[in-house]
TrEMBL record, chain A:
<dbReference type="InterPro" id="IPR042204">
    <property type="entry name" value="2Fe-2S-bd_N"/>
</dbReference>
<dbReference type="InterPro" id="IPR036010">
    <property type="entry name" value="2Fe-2S_ferredoxin-like_sf"/>
</dbReference>
<keyword id="KW-0560">Oxidoreductase</keyword>
<dbReference type="InterPro" id="IPR001041">
    <property type="entry name" value="2Fe-2S_ferredoxin-type"/>
</dbReference>
<protein>
    <submittedName>
        <fullName>(2Fe-2S)-binding protein</fullName>
    </submittedName>
</protein>
<feature type="domain" description="2Fe-2S ferredoxin-type">
    <location>
        <begin position="16"/>
        <end position="98"/>
    </location>
</feature>
<dbReference type="Pfam" id="PF13510">
    <property type="entry name" value="Fer2_4"/>
</dbReference>
Automatic annotation (TrEMBL), chain B:
<feature type="domain" description="FAD/NAD(P)-binding">
    <location>
        <begin position="4"/>
        <end position="307"/>
    </location>
</feature>
<protein>
    <submittedName>
        <fullName>FAD-dependent oxidoreductase</fullName>
    </submittedName>
</protein>
<dbReference type="InterPro" id="IPR036188">
    <property type="entry name" value="FAD/NAD-bd_sf"/>
</dbReference>
<dbReference type="InterPro" id="IPR023753">
    <property type="entry name" value="FAD/NAD-binding_dom"/>
</dbReference>
<dbReference type="InterPro" id="IPR051691">
    <property type="entry name" value="Metab_Enz_Cyan_OpOx_G3PDH"/>
</dbReference>
<keyword id="KW-0560">Oxidoreductase</keyword>
<dbReference type="Pfam" id="PF07992">
    <property type="entry name" value="Pyr_redox_2"/>
</dbReference>
Length: 103, 359
């Protein structure tokens, strides 16, 4: 749950910092990060709670297929955080149930 | 509505192979993908491929991906990214949407290369954050350069489980064990050797029985299994870990093929339900071809060559190749596929593939 600094095969380049907030707390992401990658790099693993039993959910498939990682992004619920990239000033919220007013 | 000779859905190895071949023969080709970058899962493959030179042996997956993108560009392929295909209509039109709009395209031939999904495994606690597919962990480490966890347990000793284990070690994680329910390893010895030399224990006849943690994963309970894969009471052990990776096989993503009316057949060795197709990669729908993991779970190199077959077939049916040239080209690609389907692992897939052709 941290950024890889050194790698025997990949060249890991330093990328510019992008600021986002998660449930009101500012965190540092990097340009080109998906929201999920930025959250995991900051040690955040719970992305939403289920509607009926309020169970935590996080990353599962990582490639936009399963929808387990959806969150509220800039007020819009059900955004797949594993394939949506960060933007400066983005507001991310842990999704409760179906998100928005439907929760 | 814009018209294309060939519309390819999915820009992984199969879709790229199809688009490149059809484009090279002069077809006007559109390649659609739901992701914002092309290449499918190739860019997370940081290991060297094997096989022969024609299969890019010794080249790492991401380098193959870069080369294919360049070839696609040279072949004049138009690539539209961030477009999820949601409709295929009887008149040959295809609709694809991003977050804000839906666009309709007309195509004479459609090649589906929608790939696969990783299988899940059900056990108490399997939904806890920290339990994820092996592919997710691989994507995070190799593409996003973020470690999905520090202390990891892997379920499955197939090639995905073995390769991802090794790549998580390379990224700096600690893989505490690989669990394999079968009594023997299921992946290639060359990959198993790497993880064993790195000191990762492979526990045969073992599976995960429970994931535990307050809010996210803190430990897993594992147990030995009997010959019917049932956990043996009294053999439970608890391994503290923050991440559990599931590498328990893949299933073809047949949704689009299914809704567009392609007949589906079942093949256990090829991953389950898949569109019935012949050796030319033609489905039961006359203008729809299929290729890659959608047409049976194999490897990136087989997907690429199946894509090349499908693209060449579409070009032939468009009248861009004469029958002699087509047959020569087809035999060449089929020969490469036959060589990839050799050995104890490949042989099983080759026989399964032949069953599908006969179905």
């Amino acid at each position: 749950m941290h950024r890889i600094q050194q790698h025997p095969i990949l060249s890991v380049e330093e990328r510019p910092v992008v600021h986002i907030t998660v449930d009101g707390t500012p965190i540092e992401a990097r340009e080109g990060d998906t929201i999920a990658a930025a959250l995991m790099a900051n040690g955040i693993r719970t992305f939403r709670h289920t509607a009926r039993y309020h169970e935590p959910r996080g990353l599962f498939c990582g490639i936009g297929q399963c929808t387990d990682c959806v969150m509220e992004v800039d007020g819009k619920p059900n955004v797949k955080t594993c394939i949506t990239r960060v933007r400066e000033g983005m507001t991310v919220r842990t999704q409760e149930g179906n998100g928005g007013s439907a929760s | 509505m814009k018209h294309y000779d060939v519309i390819v859905v999915g820009a992984g190895p199969a879709g790229l192979g199809a688009a490149i071949e059809a484009g090279r023969q002069g077809a006007k080709v559109l390649l659609l993908d739901e992701n914002d970058r092309p290449g499918g899962q190739l860019f997370k493959q940081i290991h060297k491929f094997f096989g022969s030179r024609e299969h890019y042996a010794g080249t790492r997956g991401f380098a193959i991906g870069r080369q294919l993108l360049q070839e696609a560009e040279e072949a004049g392929v138009e690539i539209h990214l961030g477009r999820r295909v949601w409709g295929i209509f009887p008149d040959g039109s295809v609709t694809a949407a991003n977050d804000t709009e839906s666009v309709r395209y007309q195509g004479s031939y459609l090649i589906l290369a929608t790939g696969a999904s990783e299988n899940a495994l059900a056990f108490p606690g399997c939904t806890l954050p920290g339990v994820m597919t092996a592919g997710a962990a691989q994507t995070f480490a190799n593409v996003h350069h973020v470690l999905p966890g520090q202390n990891i347990v892997m379920v499955g000793s197939g090639n995905v489980g073995l390769i991802v284990t090794y790549q998580l070690l390379q990224a700096g994680a600690n893989v505490k064990a690989i669990l394999e329910a079968a009594p023997k390893l299921s992946g290639y010895a060359v990959h198993a050797g790497k993880v064993r030399r790195a000191g990762v224990p492979v526990l045969l006849s073992h599976t995960v029985t429970r994931a535990m943690g307050d809010g996210s994963l803190e430990a897993v309970e594992i147990a030995q299994v009997d010959e019917h894969f049932a956990p043996i009471p009294g053999t439970e052990q608890v391994i503290p870990c923050d991440t559990l990776c599931l590498a328990v096989g893949l299933t073809p993503r047949v949704e689009l093929a299914d809704v567009s009316g392609c007949d589906l057949v079942w093949s256990g060795p090829l991953g389950g339900k898949l569109p019935r197709h012949n050796r030319h990669m033609e489905s039961s729908r006359s203008n729809i071809l299929v290729a890659g993991d959608l047409a049976g779970i194999e490897e990136a190199s087989t997907a690429l060559d199946e894509g090349r077959l499908a693209g060449t077939r579409a070009a032939y049916r468009l009248g861009l190749l004469d029958v002699g040239t087509y047959e020569g080209r087809r035999a060449e690609i089929q020969g490469r596929l036959d060589r990839l389907r050799q050995g104890p692992f490949g042989e099983k897939r080759r026989r399964a593939k032949e069953e599908v052709w006969k179905a």
